[in-house]
Amino acid sequence: MVFKDFSEHSATQVIPLRSAGEGFYAKFGKRAFDITVSLILLVPILLVLIPAAIAIKLTSKGPVFFKQTRHGLNKTTFKIMKLRSMSVMEDGAAFQQARKNDTRITPVGAFLRKTSLDELPQIFNVLMGDMSLIGPRPHAIKHDEEFVTRIPNYDLRFNAKPGITGLAQMRGHRGPTETDEPMRLRVQSDVEYMRSVTAWMDLRILVGTVFSVLGHKNAF
Predict the structure, then answer these.
(1) pLDDT at 1
(2) How far is C-alpha 61 from the chain's CA centre?
(3) Which of 42, 81, 92, 134 could form an SS bridge with 202, CB 3.0 to 4.6 Å?
């Protein structure tokens, strides 16, 4: 079995998928893990989402949730859910990545982004089957189109469901991608994860992400 190449112009190399990625957990257990853990986390997540939603509504104009088109498994598209942290709702070609001191970010949104709480609604994407708890982070379509031609193996990320977090995020590879190097490190970690996915690794990444987010300064 090999990873698929999804683009004629991709910088992708065809890499064999190790047997660990073809095991029972990768094929069947991972979905059970996603549903079980998501249901366990649903109540505490709602306890955070509700006051966050109220704060967003009281301090800025616009909807509480922000939905944006992203690529999922096999490059199918879905609408990712986030708590709205900006005064704009950009998607597609209009999308502009957030930067330091970005005036589009609301005061409440700055806190949500710094703590990654804006990502919590993606628990519903997981329950609907569009995402997994652990996997390559889905980027804006505009970024996919740009980086697929420049980053080796970028397209391999579409061989797995995108995740709320992943090995790259646990290692601190998050934040802006103003140069190719940050994205190269993310893709390197994503491919490493996809070739050796296990239940223990998913659990370790889930816990490790919490500590990574708390100590990370490159989020805005």
Answers:
(1) 42
(2) 26
(3) 134
Q: Which two tokens stand for residue 85?
A: 């942290």
Of the chain, the end-to-end C-alpha distance in Å amounts to 39
Tell me which of 81-95, 99-113, 121-135, 173-187 is least confident.
81-95
Domain ranges of the chain: 19-214
Give the pairing type, strands 163-165 and 65-71: unpaired
User: What residues pair up with 82 in beta bridges, in sequence order?
Assistant: 66
Q: What share of the chain is helix, strand, coil (3-state, %, to 5)?
A: 50, 10, 40
* Longest CA–CA separation in the chain, Å: 52
Q: pTM to 2 decimals?
A: 0.84
The CA distance from 187 to 152, in Å, is 8
In the chain, % of residues over pLDDT 70: 79
Indicate whether 143 pLDDT > 50: yes
- DSSP, res 73: G
